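Input structure tokens:
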């Protein structure tokens, strides 16, 4: 599969691009925001395309042409205002879904956030972020795309363990970004995750088994 990674220059994105590059079964195109970010990917031998999530659907569609799958792992981050939460985490995600539909890319993996599907569990201090994630996920679930929505807990930079727990509803927890990237990589062609949405945390089950047993 040729995979477009949206948010490729992010912490999860970079890890995922490296996994895809090293794999025999996939190839990768990294979507970056500015040309200066290209060097990291060029050194890896990875193709890049420059586009911002504030650009038009037509621009993303052009960026995605020729790919078989899209992974959305972008985010406005905690340092910007809620205007960017709307523009990136909600509208940017929805425009990416629309671009996939426009160019006929069926496979779509969304990195959402823990319990985004349950309003009663949204943390008060970041409720607008949860609103953005919730509605982007709902639009994806209602689309014709072959989606998988991964809702990880708090992301950490600790080394990955390769072991997780994945389920419809989990208690609050955390997970290394390495393991989120490995999970995204594994769901791409794991049919048991097609049309599924799940919480993801560190656990004691090897990633591929956790996804097969969802
Ligand atoms: P990150 O390092 O902040 O990466 C986010 C990426 O999104 C960056 O590469 C950033 O680009 C890109 N981005 C922001 N605005 C953009 C725009 N206008 N156009 C194109 N790209 C844009 O995030 P992460 O830690 O890898 O997280 C990955 C995902 O997990 C995100 O969707 C996040 O919401 C979600 N998540 C996070 C947590 C947590 O605890 N932090 C928990 C659950 C889920 P630049 O590199 O140019 O800035």
């Amino acid at each position: 599969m040729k995979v477009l990674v949206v948010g490729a220059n992010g912490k999860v994105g970079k890890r995922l691009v490296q996994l895809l590059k090293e794999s025999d079964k996939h190839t990768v195109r990294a979507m970056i925001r500015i040309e200066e970010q290209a060097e990291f990917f060029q050194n890896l031998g990875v193709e890049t395309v420059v586009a911002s999530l504030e650009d038009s659907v037509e621009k993303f569609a052009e960026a995605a042409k020729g790919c078989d799958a899209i992974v959305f792992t972008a985010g406005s981050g905690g340092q910007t205002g809620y205007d960017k939460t709307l523009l990136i985490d909600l509208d940017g995600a929805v425009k990416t879904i629309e671009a996939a539909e426009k160019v006929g890319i069926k496979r779509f993996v969304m990195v959402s956030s823990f319990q985004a599907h349950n309003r009663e569990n949204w943390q008060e201090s970041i409720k607008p972020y949860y609103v953005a994630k919730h509605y982007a996920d709902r639009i994806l679930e209602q689309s014709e795309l072959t989606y998988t929505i991964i809702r990880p807990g708090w992301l950490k930079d600790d080394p990955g363990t390769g072991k997780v727990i994945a389920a419809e509803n989990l208690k609050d927890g955390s997970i290394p970004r390495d393991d989120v990237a490995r999970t995204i990589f594994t769901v791409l062609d794991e049919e048991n995750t097609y049309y599924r949405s799940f919480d993801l945390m560190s656990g004691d089950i090897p990633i591929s088994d956790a996804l097969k047993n969802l």
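Residues 7, 9-13, 33, 52-54, 73-77, 88, 111, 113-114, 152, 154-155 surround NAP (CB under 6 Å). The domain at 2-212 is CATH 3.40.50.720 (Rossmann fold).
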